[in-house]
Design goal:
alpha+beta; Heat Shock Protein 90; five-stranded antiparallel beta sheet; 4 helices; globular
């Protein structure tokens, strides 16, 4: 009688997390729509049953990113400008939120990300938008081109209740 043997070969290569679900929307770049974006992200992410703290962090970061797109990205643009919002979550519990505008762009991203830096010192702007986003998310990526716009990607790994 022959003995049957099974061999299992384990890969040392880590598989990257897969996207489970996503949504995209576009809305007019009006201040009133900042709360819409925050609420839409919150409703989408709520199906994951995150902690109250994680949800509050994500909503705050989204508010800052959308406000930046509206106030700074489109400061001198036509009134029919749009904000592009994409949200996804992955098998490892990471939520990714992308906020994009096609506005004026950021001349110096590193400088813009410094605490207290503002391009509108005469207005009631604290220059803390990127700092707030970074403090409430695990990762923030900003890309921008002058005259073409800015994309902010926020990532947060959720804790579950």
């Amino acid at each position: 009688m022959s003995e049957k043997r099974n061999t299992v070969i384990k890969s040392t290569k880590k598989s990257s997390p897969q996207t489970i679900n996503f949504f995209k929307c576009t809305f007019p770049a009006k201040s009133i729509n900042e709360s819409f974006a925050r609420t839409a992200v919150s409703a989408f992410v709520s199906q994951l049953d995150p902690t109250v703290s994680d949800m509050a962090d994500l909503k705050t970061a989204v508010s800052e990113a959308v406000t930046n797109a509206i106030v700074h990205g489109y400061k001198d643009s036509p009134k029919d400008s749009l904000v592009y919002l994409s949200v996804s979550y992955k098998t490892d519990g990471t939520v990714s939120v992308e906020i994009k505008d096609k506005g004026c762009g950021i001349e110096d991203i590193n400088k813009a990300m410094e605490p207290m830096f503002t391009t509108s010192p005469g207005e009631e702007r604290s220059g803390m938008g990127f700092t707030v986003m970074a403090s409430f998310c695990d990762k923030i990526k900003v890309s921008s081109a002058l005259g073409k716009g800015t994309t902010v990607i926020l990532e947060k790994k959720l804790s579950y209740t």
